[in-house]
Amino acid sequence: MNAQGAQAGQGEHSGQDAAAAAAPAGTRLDPWFTSYADRAHGMRASEVRSLFAVANRPEVVSLAGGMPNIDGLPLDFLAEMTAKLLRERGPRALQYGGGQGEEELREQIVEVMRYDHIHAHPDDIVVTTGSQQALDLVTEIFINPGDVVVAEAPSYVGALGVFRAYQADVVHVPMDDDGLVPAELDRTLTELKRAGRTVKFLYTVPNFHNPAGVTLTLERRPEIVEICRRHHVLILEDNPYGLLGFDADPLPALKSFDADGVVYLGSFSKTFAPGYRVGWALAPHAVREKLVLASESAILSPTMMGQLSIATYLSTYDWYGQVKQYRSMYRERRDAMLGALAEFLPEASWTVPEGGFYTWVTLPAGLDAQAMLPRAVTNLVAYVSGTAFYADGQGRDHVRLSFCYPTPERIREGVRRLATVVHAESELVSMFGTATHHDRIGDSVEFPSPDQV
Questions:
Q1: pTM (2 decimals)?
Q2: What is the rounded distance in angstroms from the CA atom of residue 241 to the CA atom of residue 243?
Q3: Does the N terminus or the C terminus of the chain have fewer Cβ atoms within 10 A?
Q4: From the CB of residue 81, how many other CB atoms can be counted at a distance below 10 Å?
Q5: What pLDDT is attached to residue 20?
Q6: Greatest CA separation found in the chain?
Q7: Tens-digit pLDDT profile for residues 18-67
């Protein structure tokens, strides 16, 4: 090689070396590790995700997931309805739609919300991909890193994941058998203001709470609204279960007490079918506009097929009669759950839900629900540890049990198996004491499996 070629070769190698030095170093498993946004480094799968892959086997009684039982749906009617929809409106149903959602469906949603004593206009509704996307959109447009979201203790695991993903600090407020405690909310908001913290909204599930199973009383509802109005804190009201009361129609929504101070989230996943993935947000005008823009940026438009299918179902079928059938079915399963707990696990305590899908069980002293879960799955029963429902590591003495999906016979067998595990754990605690210590994992964001939601 001549001198000129050697110099060119050296220059080429020098350029490659410089480029390699300038390029961010990844890892052997992920060459893009150092390229992620800071928030992505805190993301991790739920530590029980692999367990629930096992828990889905048919021999395991899962008292974990919040899957509605859709066996009672009129499948023949839905099949004919869908075929007719495709024949007559196929080009529309299979095309893009508007970012706010179809007016036809929004008008139907207005009628659905009348059962919650809400009088709304279709223009203030944004159709979303389930209420989970609505949660994400509201958080996106309001939360800066370090802002505070006030939430019930415990709180819905899917919401906590969203809040932490946007780097919000979650501050819990206690609940009791009557729901969120107003005096504790007022005290918490006052202390946060004195500390100079920025509180963006209160997140609450007032009806048949997930996971606690309790309902905010009628007397407390205007009080909660007034406290938030006084502190200038928006309320994010999440109401997927409101129509599923066992013995009565819904109490007035928080939105009905303050149209401008509440963003209301609804969903068809629990009262119809989750596979359509259709929910909505009802928001004040200015908030509505930002939600539409954020939704268009994320997904362009919600599913047209899902929207038109649900609009057709609501307008042509006795959908509220179907909801009443669900109420009866879930009441029977609730009774099976509570009866089995009283028979097999009387040393524990639990909430008595008046609707919805869940009961919140306090374990005997000294037991750790998170540590016990692998042994429960080994004994062919699954639940969700209470730790999933707190942002600050609480909840090891609680489990959430779901009664919506298994049959009453399976519920009874599942509780019997769970009691066997609890009794064995209690014997170990009695002999050796409680020595289990768990450290929190920094600011990591745990995303639940769909089986836990």
A1: 0.89
A2: 6
A3: N
A4: 16
A5: 46
A6: 93
A7: 444 444 566 777 888 888 887 777 666 654 555 556 656 888 999 998 88
How far is C-alpha 111 from the chain's CA centre? Answer: 24
Q: Token digits for 114?
A: 């009348």
- For every residue of 139-183, DSSP letters joined together read HHHHPPTT-EEEEEES--HHHHHHHHHTTPEEEEEEEETTEE-HH
Composition of the chain by helix, strand, coil, percent to 5: 50, 15, 40
Q: Which amino acid is at 236?
A: L
291 in Cβ contact with 139 (< 8 Å): no
Cis peptide before 211 (omega within 30 of 0): yes
- Token readout for 291 is 């939600």
Q: Which helix (H) or strand (E) holds 131?
A: helix 130-142
Q: Which residues of the chain have pLDDT under 70?
A: 1-26, 42-56, 434-453
Instruction: Compute φ and ψ for 359, nearest 5 degrees.
Output: -125, 150
Q: Cα separation of 210 and 434, whole Å?
A: 29
Strands 61-62 and 169-176: unpaired
Q: CA angle, 50 as apex, 45 and 51 as ends, to 5°?
A: 125
CA neighbours closer than 13 Å in the CB half-sphere of residue 72:
19
Residue 381: both structure tokens together: 């029963």
DSSP string, 53-119: HHHTSTTSEE--------TTS-HHHHHHHHHHHHHHHHHHHTS---TT--HHHHHHHHHHHGGGT--
Indicate the burial class of 29 (C-beta count within 10 angstroms; 0-12, 13-18, 19 or more).
Answer: exposed
Query: What gap in Å lies between CA 154 and CA 156, rounded to an integer?
Result: 7
Strands 179-180 and 381-382, sheet pairing: unpaired
Cα gap 33→293, rounded to integer Å: 31
Judge residue 322's burial from the number of C-beta atoms within 10 Å of its C-beta, 0-12 exposed, 13-18 middle, 19 or more buried.
Answer: middle
Other beta carbons less than 10 A from residue 441's beta carbon: 12
Measuring CA to CA, which residue among 444, 335, 396, 338 is closest to residue 154? 396
Q: How far apart are CA 370 and CA 374, in angstroms?
A: 8
What φ, ψ does residue 399 adopt, rounded to 5°?
A: -135, 150
Pairing of strands 169-176, 179-180: antiparallel
The whole-number pLDDT of residue 424 equals 94
Both structure tokens of 287 = 């908030």
Contacts of 136 (CB under 8 A, 6+ apart): 162, 298
Residue 36 has a pLDDT of: 84
Residue 21 gets which letter from DSSP?
H
Measured CA distances, 220 to 18, 180, 223, 237 (Å): 65, 8, 5, 14
Is the previous residue joined to 154 through a cis bond, with omega within 30 degrees of 0? yes
3-state SS class at 44: strand
pLDDT at 49: 55
